Amino acid sequence: MSKAKIIREMQERVYQANLVLPQEGLVKLTWGNASEVNRELQLIVIKPSGVAYNQMKPEQMVVTDLSGKVLEGSLKPSSDLGTHVILYRDFQEIQGVVHTHSKHAVMWAQGARDIPPYGTTHADTFYGEIPCTRPLTEAEIVGEYEIETGHVIVETFRVRQIDPLAVPGVIVNGHGPFVWGKSVAEAVEHGIILEEVAEMAMGTEIVRPASGTISDGLLDKHYLRKHGEQAYYGQ
């Protein structure tokens, strides 16, 4: 397949992924973005900045190299591109990244809290708590903000020894969620699930403020039956 055809197919996938975000209630206005990487061609395709979802076209998806330099298109890439670049650089097994400002996930970000694994819906996708990063420093905020956001995400997973494939999402302190996957479509799915479990966790704490998380055994069962070496789960 020619390079041009590969890029066009990437643009179509990224376009479709971005359209799902408002459809699923994960973004309002232009508050979100999705991207895909092709490591062989050293390319990223990402949503353009500030373009309304109902006006986007596949060919408007912006093509950059792995440093974020624009290679194709007259539109500017999403302002969050720098974060995507760092995640692709440091999480080598992922192929898609999504950022949203979904309401319940943002509430956890603004509360600076991890999302605890209260039940099996959480455990089916996230193998433990969904971490909240530390706040960015003033120097990080006034510097290369989006790149530093990526760095603080990577730092969180490194310091806490979390496998980014086992926990494919994060809450950036005071900001919102980033999720990823082995495809951009999977990243979108993880964003939908993260928002759902964020709302469920909030409701759980209302129903029973002193709720404990599920047992390690139940967490293992639900995650590993779907993602382990002998996975068998399907609905």
Walk me through the topology.
Layout: H1 3-23, E1 32-38, E2 43-46, E3 62-65, E4 70-72, H2 81-90, E5 96-100, H3 103-110, H4 120-123, H5 138-142, H6 145-159, E6 169-172, E7 176-181, H7 184-207, H8 216-227
Antiparallel strand pairs: 1-2, 1-5, 2-3, 3-4, 5-7, 6-7
Helix pairs in contact: 1-7, 2-6, 3-7
Can you offer a commentary on this structure?
- With 235 residues, this protein is an alpha+beta fold.
- It has a single domain, classed as L-fuculose-1-phosphate Aldolase.
- It is built from 8 helices and 7 strands, in the order αββββαβααααββαα.
- The protein has a 7-stranded antiparallel sheet with strand order 4-3-2-1-5-7-6, sandwiched between helices.
- The longest helix has 24 residues, at 184-207.
- The chain starts with a helix and ends in an 8-residue tail after the last helix.
- The mean pLDDT is 94.
The structure class reads alpha+beta
Classify the helix fraction into a percent range. Answer: 40-55%
Please give the domain count. Answer: 1
Rg, nearest Å: 18 Å
From the 3D structure, determine the CATH topology. L-fuculose-1-phosphate Aldolase
Neighbour order of strands in the largest sheet: 4-3-2-1-5-7-6
How would you summarize this macromolecular structure in one to three sentences?
The protein has 8 helices and 7 strands.
